Amino acid sequence: MNSYLLLFFMNTIDVVDPHGSSESCIRMLRSLNITFIEVTHEPVLDYVKATEIRARFDLTGRETKSLFLKGKGGDYFVFLTSAETRVDFKALKTLLGMKIGIASHEELLRETGFTPGCVGPFGLKSSITLVIDMSIFDFPRLIFSPGNPTTTIEMTSESLRLALEGVENRKLLFPCSIG
Q: Model-level pTM greater than 0.85?
């Protein structure tokens, strides 16, 4: 028996575009009265530039990464974790009950409308399952991309928890550790 938890949240609302965008992400967060900081800047497509942006805008949160994954059966998942966490695909296979891999850039664009490298946990079609690394909630503040390389969002981990309660996506908590 494993210790994975399946979460179903009540009181969800769906205010996202069928093909996500940074605007749908921001609109969703505002509709839920989530407190967050939004900064606009030149494109960020790597962690070096992300570090530069964090320093320039005095963002103190932990950088996150969201991997867009595809299951063997054609299901899509977004795995949310901290930037430095190594993904254990074998454990994810156990949790999801199927072999998974990184989805193609074409699938990412078609299914989310997001720029490759800029996937976030919000503004997604409700059919995409969120897999959330539980250790992410150990950090006081978190930094996300809302789907495009010129916008960054910072919020508290409690705001993340509240925002996740408000989305229709199925959510799975994944026990993970940094390293």
A: no
pLDDT tens by residue, 114-134: 888 889 898 899 999 999 999
| Confidence at 24, pLDDT banded by 50, 70, 90 | confident
CATH code 3.90.960.10 for 5-174? yes
Delimit the domains of the chain by residue range: 5-174
Which phi and psi angles does 82 have, rounded to 5°? -80, 155
Strand pairing partners for 70?
76, 101
- Can you give the pLDDT at residue 14? 34
- How many degrees, rounded to 5, is the angle at CA 155 between CA 62 and CA 136? 45
Alpha-carbon distance of 122 to 165, in angstroms, equals: 11
Alpha-carbon gap, residue 79 to 102, rounded angstroms: 10
What lies within 8 Å, CB to CB, of 135 at 6+ separation is 81, 82, 85, 176, 177, 178
For 48-57, the pLDDT digits (tens) are 898 999 999 9
| Dist CA 119 CA 96 (whole Å) | 20
